[in-house]
Amino acid sequence: MPIKQVHTDQRVPVKIWTDDVDEKSMQQLANIASLPFIHHHVAAMPDVHLGIGATIGSVIATHKAIIPAAVGVDIGCGMVACRLSITANELDEKSLKGVFDQISRDVPVGRGMHNNRRAFEEAAQPFAARLDRILEKHPVLEKSICGTTKWVKQMGTLGGGNHFIEVCLDESDQVWVMLHSGSRGIGNTLAEYFIQLARKDMEQWMIHLPDRDLAYFPEGTVHFDDYVEAVHWAQEYAFQNRQCMLDLVLEALRRHLPAFEVTSEVVNCHHNYPGFFTKQGESRLTH
Question: Which of 51, 85, 224, 287 is least surrounded by Cβ atoms within 10 Å, i.e. has the fewest?
Fold first, then answer.
């Protein structure tokens, strides 16, 4: 559909790819557009809806600042999908029931964790040293993170909410595996901590915002650098988490379906993340 450009009384316009935006979401978009470091415009996608401070389903470019709540509380949440070499004709109700039961046994959901999966503990271990560096700078996090092995045991787990695993078909009846998940409990803990830290910074600097959840870290401050480090850690953890689950799902399919290969069409990408780009020699951030 054509882009709908909404000119508010704010600094920059809001560009929307849908006609279906509720009043509260529109207010959040206007709040974001009023901030002094927003670059060029705010973009709202067709799935835009109310979030914490910033709308979910929007792209926000900033200059020399980052908004933790706009990145989201499930840092690195995203999708992984791959196409298989088999088609719908090779599936039947019995085999699909076997696949469903196998995945249900092998991939913990909700608050579930792996207890005896050495392979996934090994997949989590490369993250330990970098996490230690983050905790050294922010020791208050140790009680909720370091005092437990939960973040290790949650590697390769789905979580709850709108996270899902799906065996599906494309328009040519080719079989795909797709799943949606993020950085699990530890990503949420890091996100909530830095959102609160940004709020405290705003109070200390007496910066008034249209919404306290739009609290931000200016580039060049210690907390900006620490948050970016934590975000990158959580994004990589989320990426690895999805890959571990994909391996489990493919293993389950191989037990119950005819022999297949994974084609080269594999996607593993985030949709809750900040990205850096350069515009006319200066760095920008997208949320």
Answer: 85
Residue 247: DSSP 8-state: H
The DSSP 8-state label assigned to residue 127 in this structure reads G
- SS3 per residue for 257-269: CCCCCEEEEEEEE
Q: Residue 168's beta-bridge partner residues?
A: 176
The predicted-structure confidence for 19-57, as pLDDT tens digits, reads as follows 889 999 999 999 999 999 999 899 999 999 999 999 999
Beta bridge partners of 245: none
**63 residue type, one letter:** H
| Phi/psi-derived region of residue 162, left when phi > 0, alpha when psi is between -120 and 50, beta in every other case | alpha
Give the chain's domains with CATH numbers.
1-62 (no CATH), 71-271 (3.90.1860.10)
Q: Alpha helix (H) ranges present in the chain?
A: 23-33, 68-71, 93-106, 118-124, 128-137, 150-153, 184-204, 222-256
Helix (H) or strand (E) segment spanning residue 40: strand 38-49
DSSP state, 220?
T
Question: Does pTM surpass 0.85?
Answer: yes
Measured in degrees and rounded to the nearest 5, phi and psi for residue 203 equal -65, -45
The 8-class DSSP code of residue 52 comes to S
- Give counts: helices (H), strands (E), the chain: 8, 12
pLDDT tens digit sequence for 124-182? 999 999 999 999 999 999 877 755 678 999 999 999 999 999 999 999 999 999 999 99
